[in-house]
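User: Earlier you gave me the apo prediction for this protein. Now I'd like the version with zinc ion bound, so I can compare the two side by side. Same sequence as before, with the ligand SMILES added.
Assistant: Got it. Here's the input I'm using:
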Amino acid sequence: MNLLKDPFISTTDGKVSLKDILTSNKDYQLQYFFDETQLAMLQMLSSLSTVVLKPTISDLNDYLANGLSPGQYDALLEKVDSQWFEGERFMRSAFPSKAKIADGPITKLVSGIECGGSANALGLFSESSEVSICCTDCTHVLNYNLHMNIKGECFGPTGATGIRGGGSISTLISGENLKSTILLNTVCIDYFNEQAQLDDDAESRFMWDIPPISDIYSAPKIGLERGLFALAYHIDFPVIDTPCTCDICGNTADQSVTTFQRVKYSGSYGSTKKGRDNGAGWWLHPYTPRNVKEDGIYAVCARDQYWQSWQELTSYVIGKETDKTSVKPAFIINQFQNKLGVDLCLSLLVGGNIADQGSIAGRVYDLYSMPSSLSKNNSRISLVINAGLTQKEKLSLAFNKIFGVGYDKNFVGGIKNQAIQKFTSNAQQIVQQILLDVNRKEATQLRKEAIEALNKEAKSIFKSVQRKYQHDLPLFKALVKGEFILYKADS
Ligand SMILES: [Zn+2]
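And here is the structure of the complex with zinc ion:
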């Protein structure tokens, strides 16, 4: 099986190839049971598409407008050294001799289902028995997910941190169908070269051809294709000759895989403290928004289980500047805003794990409607998000009155925190719902509706707390005092 040629991608129409998706008008839907695998598949397919198409900005605009014929795909594929995409080779480098090989069940490669032995490898979302066997085709997306999305800490001392850092958030453009989604997330080589500022002698061969050997993996030395599939482990998936129904994609297969083996690479990327301190630099991973701080660049991560993506949406699309740090949108968002002449209704996909040290505390997979002209109308997004953040702040101020009652601080703090978390969580759907109208409604109307809906939610949460404590007179009185804040008009 070759990932650039053969049908290994599971869809509701059976398994198809990258060429099938990119060169037909059929509306394929990916079929993977876990949204995390689905997200990894979109990243991996867009990176594979980058390897085959290697488009300039003008090429990609052409493919988006006019499509790509099977003949064009074949001609482009001729120029690619496709042996590196054979199933037994792709993203797999041989174990160093004498290395101690760690192994585990493939269950560990769906990080919402953690079954590690380390004390803090917690975070069970689903039963581990749900993923115990897979087809050989699905080993590639599990391997990719391990390298790009799963936090090394989840594997204790045998875990490694990949090129983007552990547990980072991904942002992708979501098009009207799978083909346009993959094309919209394909990297334009000319724009990447301009933005990434690699050295002239940057290595472009894949790491399973030429593994990195130094202690520090210097970002400017890592070429685009090498970085898109950068490795952190030597890895292997032992194949057994037993038929299976795959727990990842649902297809049946003659052979199956239940375990994987790994040995971590010994060097450090600029995504780690050691790499940062030794000047490795940040490699411009195209799907990763980042925090630029005085002491270096960090992938944006979601760290708190109560975190909801809407609060950060503005910074993922437009960026955000504060005194000490600035959040930059992912390269792929900038590419879309600045270089692609598409005038379609699109969505932004925000996905990833919410990691807390070695455990996974939650998962994010949120889709937002975006203005069709993202560069011109993106202020509409900030209006909606700011309305949400303002209501959250008001709710917080309203609850502050209960700290004056003289009760135990932890007790009243707990009441407040629970209410704020509930608001943040409920606002997620409200914001997504309001943004569905981002193309149809004027900015002032959108803002008005956002304020109304979110203020209603804040009041309703506040009222439910009031009801709960109506027989506790001091607390109830304090809540009545705070209530007016939610009724003050927004300036
Ligand atoms: Zn499968």
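For your comparison, keep in mind: Residues 117-124 have pLDDT under 50 and may be disordered.
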